[in-house]
Amino acid sequence: MAFIVAFDTDKIKQYIFATNKLKEIRGASAILDELNEYETLNLLPKGKGNYDFDRNENVWKWNGKDMKTDDLEWEVIFVGGGSGMVVFKNKNTATKFCSDLEKRYYTFSEGGASITTAIIETDDLTNFQLLYQRLQFKLRQNKDARYQISQTLTHPFFRYCDSDGNLYAEKTDGKIAFRDEYFLSAQIRRKREYAKKGRVIFKKFIQFLLNDKNQNFSNWRYLESNLNKIFKNFENVISSKNGYKDIPNSFPDDITDLEDDRGYIGLIYADANRMGERLEQIKSKEAYSYFSKTIKYCNETAIFNALANYIKPKIISTNKGYKIELIPFEIFLLGGDDIILAVPGTCALEIARSYLDNFKNFTANNLSGYTKGNDFNNPFFGNGISMSAGVVFAHGNYPLHLLLKYATELQKSAKWKSREMQKQSNKNGEEVNCIDFEIIKQSLLPDIKSIRQTFEDKFTGKSLNLYKRPYTTEEMNELISEIHCWKKNSFPKNKLNEMYDLLHKGRMQAQVGFLRILRRLPEEIQKHLIHNYVMKNIFPWEKNEAGQYTTPFFDLIEVYEFISE
Description:
The chain is an alpha+beta fold. It is built from 18 helices and 20 strands. The strands form six sheets. It has a six-stranded mixed β-sheet with strand order 12-13-9-14-15-18. Strands 4-5-1-6 form a four-stranded antiparallel β-sheet, with helices on both faces. A hairpin with a 4-residue loop joins strand 2 and strand 3.
């Protein structure tokens, strides 16, 4: 008899983005990583499973090759990204593990984070597809049945936390005079304690760069002979047990540190498509373990590759030479198949596009070769796993929880397009990556849909749609290339503003106005527009299958300043 335990962290985004302060967001993310990557495995009986803790290197290592399967009292199938699955031989051990895990999450986070567990028993592990479905159903049941904590009570002698405003304050920060001290709850204090440890993700990124022996990343190559000198300290930090305490202050301390020259950041939220369907197709626990670990590896490598290609480190000159002042990105959440991060606005779309394409290519390369026992339906896995992303641009002081709300809406919009395009092909055919984006210029925005309504041309009565979003990554490449062409040929910015205004004045007026502007443009860009748009009857409107008139120019003009030259 075997007992399979599944667990999944509850309301991750709500816990991480409880406040708008980068230190607390980073600390919350670090706490979840510590719980999922270390504390979870630490609750398993020592020396009796397929993982052992290496105290010299301070990491968990797979021990499966050194032990026969029959000798294992527990076997980790997968742990990472806030979830996991473990097989136990003994019911009491499985039950105790679930109880200890839920308690550990609560105490370690001071009541802020929680995790839901589920157990099923079986005497046959061969039909893993059915077992996985049963386990997910049980996990969903347990999540829905969880007791919801009510609103905290009020009292004249109670004081709420000055950071989140919801929990009772327990202590002050103790940094300034008493009357001006900052009152903090236990949860917020815990997050602040772990803020430094949240920089472990930067350690991984530095290690990724150091492993690039061929210096493939152009944004870092110009450091030339200073490269080893600059990263020597980081290399020592990475190899140390408590290195996160010694990392130089080369990373953002506030979201505004990520702003581009115009004061904008880009928040990216991306998630793999149809992942639940894929997991239900896996036929063995060995394949599930391989799949989960591979996805996690591909996700991390894909984003590091994109960041290394499009992020430019800020360099300052000192008496001793050059050193890194700031590596401008912040990864809030890096799960198994999703990510939330903030970057400077001018590189957000290119990072998102590159990340999605990287992930699809990496998963295609790493999953297509796994054919053990026909555990994967290869057409469903071998072509690579697509992703959908929402990218929202806003000033750095805009509330992060609202930006995440908009990014989630955009990500769902992109998923919808990816799904619709997949339906047009066959069921297991190759999928496409999709991106939707929006620039937030208003202080209050109810939702994305409210600003994307079509409007009726007052002269013709035809429906006009200013937006062609969302885009596939292939279409996004074309959009970015078009902007590069315009910038290379010095497209007059005053003409861009004039075109933007004309698009709101109806179909006929916009067409006449665009042709008038065309005559006054530089010769090279004029030829380009005639060949790519006028000859195709897209200047500026084109008619889609639904009979609506749409235009690519609104998207081009809006995102023009967010694409670097």
